[in-house]
Design brief:
332 residues; mainly alpha; 2 domains; 12 helices; 78% helix; transmembrane helix; Stage II sporulation protein M; membrane; SpoIIM-like; transmembrane
Length: 332
């Protein structure tokens, strides 16, 4: 699609948002639901225009329009459950899909090294020693071994909460490094995605070949749906920062970074939430001895389906509303 075709298709929607913004700026009362719907649609158009390197006059118009709408929508200081619900149900999944190109790159950077390192460690157990020292390997074997005093040992409530705090700090630290290091032209995010993928794959492959597959897989399958997905999303947001630095277009690099961060921050809000969920599951469910591996596999599979469906479909406008927003309809 050419820039001209893109503009002709969506110009009525942009004009409607401009009109809504003008009304809202002049009056205290306005149609907040309609304004929010238009705002989200134009944010998607802005992301597409930036990804396709459309003319700067178009991206500047959309940036100005979305920033004006953003100020009006969020100036009401709605920080209660309604605002949180909108973030979870609409803003976060839409922001993830707006980063789809960077998400694909981050997924490949994480999963390919994970699979390759896992196969290498499964095929040759000595491969793990290129990444971890002997004491670390022995510790993993002790953690996931069949010894009743090791994997899944009973903990009291205080220990569970201690581990929850540890997992929160560790998970958020990993996610923050994957995101923030993207400012170095995306190289930092790519490195941490590769590093975490190789480490996770090598440990998994080694434990599976050592005969600890059931203990290891039943432990990671449930919280992994949230934790691993969040790591990839953090890396995707970091790659967005790196791209803004490398290809700022007609903006200065600092201005390009600011705009990229403005769109990526919604993804990071969601990532923090997912990492908190992962930490809670890991502390209170994953190592529970009273839950059989079969049940953990079933719940884990359901969590993976839920996460993928949520990110793929949640927050999409209804077909009729989308047709109205884009000016596309069916002749009758």
């Amino acid at each position: 699609m050419t820039p001209l075709q893109f503009e002709e298709m969506h110009a009525p929607l942009w004009a409607e948002l401009e009109a809504e913004v003008g009304i809202a700026e002049r009056k205290r009362k306005f149609d907040g639901a309609r304004l929010a719907t238009l705002y989200r649609r134009v944010c998607e158009h802005l992301a597409l225009a930036q990804a396709r390197a459309y003319p700067v006059h178009m991206t500047q118009r959309l940036e100005t329009l979305t920033q004006s709408a953003h100020r009006l929508i969020y100036r009401r200081h709605d920080y209660g459950m309604a605002r949180l619900g909108r973030l979870v149900l609409v803003d976060f999944p839409q922001a993830v899909r707006a980063h789809r190109g960077f998400l694909l790159a981050a997924t490949l950077l994480f999963t390919l090294p994970l699979l390759l390192a896992g196969f290498a460690a499964w095929r040759d157990p000595g491969f793990i020693l290129h990444l971890l020292d002997a004491d670390q390997v022995q510790n993993f074997e002790h953690m996931y071994g069949d010894d009743a005093d090791a994997f899944g040992r009973k903990r009291d409530a205080d220990d569970d909460w201690t581990m929850f705090g540890y997992y929160v700090m560790n998970n958020i630290g990993v996610g923050f490094r994957c995101f923030a290091s993207g400012i170095f032209a995306g190289v930092g995010s790519a490195f941490f995605l590769l590093y975490n993928g190789v480490q996770a794959g090598a440990v998994g492959g080694y434990l599976i070949q050592a005969g600890h597959a059931q203990n290891f897989l039943s432990f990671v399958v449930t919280h992994g749906a949230f934790e691993l997905t969040a790591i990839v999303l953090s890396g995707a947001a970091g790659l967005r920062l790196g791209y803004a630095w490398i290809a700022p277009g007609r903006h200065t690099r600092l201005e390009s970074l600011r705009l990229a961060a403005h769109h990526a921050v919604v993804v990071i809000y969601g990532v923090v939430g997912m990492l908190l969920v992962a930490a809670a599951i890991e502390a209170f469910w994953s190592s529970a001895r009273w839950v059989t591996p079969g049940v953990k596999y079933g719940v884990g599979a359901a969590c993976w389906v839920l996460v993928l469906a949520y990110l793929s479909w949640q927050g999409r406008p209804r077909r009729a509303a989308q047709a109205k927003d884009t000016g596309v309809g069916h002749a009758r």
